[in-house]
Amino acid sequence: MGILGATGTVGQRLVAMLEGHPQLVVTAVAASDRSQGKTFGEACVWRLPGNVPSALRALQVRPPEPPLDCDIVLSSLPADTAGPVEAQFAAAGYPVISNSSSHRMDDDVPLLIPEVNAGHLAMIARRSGRGFIVTNPNCSTIMIALALAPLQSRFGVEAGVVTTMQAISGAGYPGVASLDITDNVVPYIASEEEKIERETLKILGRVDGGGARGRPAEFPLSELGLHTAPLCPILVRDEPDRPQPRLDRDAGGGMSITIGRIARDRVLSHRFVALSHNTIRGAAGAAILNAELLAAEGYLSGMINEQ
Amino acid sequence: MGILGATGTVGQRLVAMLEGHPQLVVTAVAASDRSQGKTFGEACVWRLPGNVPSALRALQVRPPEPPLDCDIVLSSLPADTAGPVEAQFAAAGYPVISNSSSHRMDDDVPLLIPEVNAGHLAMIARRSGRGFIVTNPNCSTIMIALALAPLQSRFGVEAGVVTTMQAISGAGYPGVASLDITDNVVPYIASEEEKIERETLKILGRVDGGGARGRPAEFPLSELGLHTAPLCPILVRDEPDRPQPRLDRDAGGGMSITIGRIARDRVLSHRFVALSHNTIRGAAGAAILNAELLAAEGYLSGMINEQ
Amino acid sequence: MGILGATGTVGQRLVAMLEGHPQLVVTAVAASDRSQGKTFGEACVWRLPGNVPSALRALQVRPPEPPLDCDIVLSSLPADTAGPVEAQFAAAGYPVISNSSSHRMDDDVPLLIPEVNAGHLAMIARRSGRGFIVTNPNCSTIMIALALAPLQSRFGVEAGVVTTMQAISGAGYPGVASLDITDNVVPYIASEEEKIERETLKILGRVDGGGARGRPAEFPLSELGLHTAPLCPILVRDEPDRPQPRLDRDAGGGMSITIGRIARDRVLSHRFVALSHNTIRGAAGAAILNAELLAAEGYLSGMINEQ
Amino acid sequence: MGILGATGTVGQRLVAMLEGHPQLVVTAVAASDRSQGKTFGEACVWRLPGNVPSALRALQVRPPEPPLDCDIVLSSLPADTAGPVEAQFAAAGYPVISNSSSHRMDDDVPLLIPEVNAGHLAMIARRSGRGFIVTNPNCSTIMIALALAPLQSRFGVEAGVVTTMQAISGAGYPGVASLDITDNVVPYIASEEEKIERETLKILGRVDGGGARGRPAEFPLSELGLHTAPLCPILVRDEPDRPQPRLDRDAGGGMSITIGRIARDRVLSHRFVALSHNTIRGAAGAAILNAELLAAEGYLSGMINEQ
Known about the structure:
The structure is a homotetramer.
Chain A: E1 2-4, H1 9-18, E2 28-30, H2 40-43, E3 61-62, E4 73-75, H3 79-91, E5 95-98, H4 114-117, E6 132-135, H5 139-154, H6 178-181, H7 192-204, E7 234-236, H8 245-248, E8 257-265, E9 269-275, H9 280-296
Parallel strand pairs in A: 1-2, 1-4, 2-3, 4-5, 5-6, 7-8
Antiparallel strand pairs in A: 8-9
């Protein structure tokens, strides 16, 4: 498995989560110009607790272009370069599992949350010699879609009003200047509202011709034994003051979302508060879970690097 | 003018804002048992920048009960003691201007925001020898009602969905433990949602029999020359990333609210972000502005202490 | 093992660290009046991520007085009650391992950091039918003494100037009000400077008559296989911007301290920056490590609850 | 007066402090390439509360090179460009008052704190047709030198050990990434320790041949009526928990430093805590006060723009 954008915030989180993964082994790391020619240990200013995983320290950082010494690629490239690079890898035969926004709305690209719309895998057009792209949604959208999916499935959801309070990690590194956010709230993230609207609709939609598996929440995910899948994707708490980020973000290894304060609402029938880990369920863990689902469903057959 | 609860968070803010006020002079301070028998300078652990106003340093702290050496009282007592104490002062003939929640929903107590519902002063039953109570709303409600009033007046407002992000100052002192709020969000303040719902309805409602002045936003407030009234109670900003607390909370001396991100909304027709200073417009400044309106409208005639 | 003060900040950390401990099993929890008569699950407002360990949820909270259903007690009682209660337990035959400051300077009470002054165990006067008290130092002192011990042992340390920057967790719960510490630094913790001075001197001192083991850093701790002991108690980093709390506090499971920025100093020959986890190495983990040392050295023989 | 680097953090603070200044009027603003050709209102992303001063909004941003439509220049250019630009302005006849570090250690450049070493103005070699450079120290050094000056003057200071806790504003904009500083302490600012050492020595030193005025703290500053000079440059507080940034940084309009916790120290005879406002006393206010001193002492004669 190769990581595109391995030195970035989400890239580091991918690398950390894949350390010791029973199935997915990092064999290549690629990043922008500045890092190339260095080892990963030299190129990477590690910003997570602990150190760069020792197995990757001596790996040479490669340019983000095929061929790369791997069978599949995980991409956390910044939005301004991800588009053509990911298309190039797919054209060269690699399955591309991406956290970037560039291809999320493409017709043949599933916007995938395994617990919600695994059936959307049917959107992948499998052609000989060609790879494909699978994306995970925007960090906020993942939580929103996870929370709405069972409501949509059982009751139908007509409309929702959402206010997000987002972790600074969502902006990557260096992201938001500390002078701008200390003692402050910034009510704007470029394109965020648009992403949330259109991505949620795509995820909760049905794939035409996608067959029987194309309904949310009917996919028997738990039988697949995916390594990163939480025991319980949605935790509901009864205490009036939960969820709280400090107490709940790491639930299920950062892959469970927590719901609380469910109440009747005079305007929109019901309201609730949902919380999820921004860089695990909302980014790196989402991409890895997608890779695991693809592997379990046979989309990576003969492609997973064995060690 | 006497301050009840003068040593608390809002009490200190009242004292600071009244320093040098052209009309309202603090002549008495009252607080709970622990402070009594001390001077205000001794009793008060000053938590605002600067020092206790020198004119008040030697004032004896009195028990919160009539008689008090003043003609009117401003109350920032905690909710658990405000109810009977304020009623006692009113019964003893004092006009009571309160920031506490105890009497806000009483039938003969205006829940007053001068720019919004000055006409609600008609709710005061003026009887010889008796005082009265005027309250200001909850800190969130003041901003919500200020923002909705012109919309209500011109277009009518059927329903709204509100998410608040509140400053820790709203909980008073000591309020929220730092261990509970650092690196965290707490999605619950006891009774807050109920207060916002019922107080907003009372403020934006019409006083039956209140006559021609009982409509929001028609009162010629600017002609009254109230000292604490901002030039512009509602500022609208066009930048996509405003309002921001650090940049906008002190607008109009902390008495203007700032609106931004006005946009069409697919679910509820329009949406926007509003911001106001929690302890000035939302508490101390609100009470002082109410006192100024009462004075200007003749409700304190012969009662204001002249110096 | 019984936990005194089990519902407090350090008590909860003790309970969390002891979950699944191979040797030390919690059989009793005691706390102040308010919690008694409730189960631990009811009495404890859990402030750590996750939930109250399920094995303890139904345990009845007992008053902090002997007899208690355990062989040894870990005490994280607040300073105002710890003194007599711990003495009472010791008198009743219990070994008492305390994080409280009350008995730290007592003549027959070791102020113990296993890696530094294990030889001080010789201070314990073992008398038939009587227990004893062993304490760990103040959170800042543990780090200072750990950092100085090898310097003292090899070069001798004449004097040091220390500035501490302390986590808010050091004040317990509710501790510091958020209004006091947000956007602020408070340059004072009552008695902290005095504790650091006198405790460091006691820890780095030699026990008269304590024999050959009474020298710091000569005790073969690693051979004892203590469960909570970190592989490396002192990590030294070369990067100019380390240690940093976010990156380094969890090193060694929170039990390693990290040193950086070692440099020659014009005034005091050398200077450096040291960092440790405030509630693990500085409190709960320190007490548990002391318990493990006592067990390994035979001081708890026949006392450890076996399961 | 022209401002070099007017759109930066310190530049904006300069502009804000000079609004309504009785003597110093901004007539020109210069900044780096990106801003040129725009008005100051267009070029400047205003990061202070309120808005760009209206008088400057339509001013064209100029390149930072002479000639500039002003008699003197205030420079807050970043260190990487300040050196040659400031030299160029001085060579062209402008008095340059700089907050940048480039020329601080030059032989003919006073490193000036008016209350401490006004006599160092004697270092300026006044030659016909030529300007000169006057600098203010690093933000930490200003506070340290202000605190030490009276001790040096009365008792002599042999040595000191200093630990600084610095506001994020010291790094300019965008400065420190929020991901790096949230829930964290970074123990390193490049060159900071070296600057503090060498600048403090220069400030507290005597100018050879500088004559009778070359002693710290003997200059009758208060008689000069400098607009930005605080009534009391050093405030001493007795409370054990002061100074605190939130309560004390704005003392004297941000130009007073506050000292507390003065105590005997076993190692270095005495210790204390000092606090000052990082961007006012430590940067913009320091430069403006220097300009006012130069004006009062006749160094800008015929140069101040009168309006």
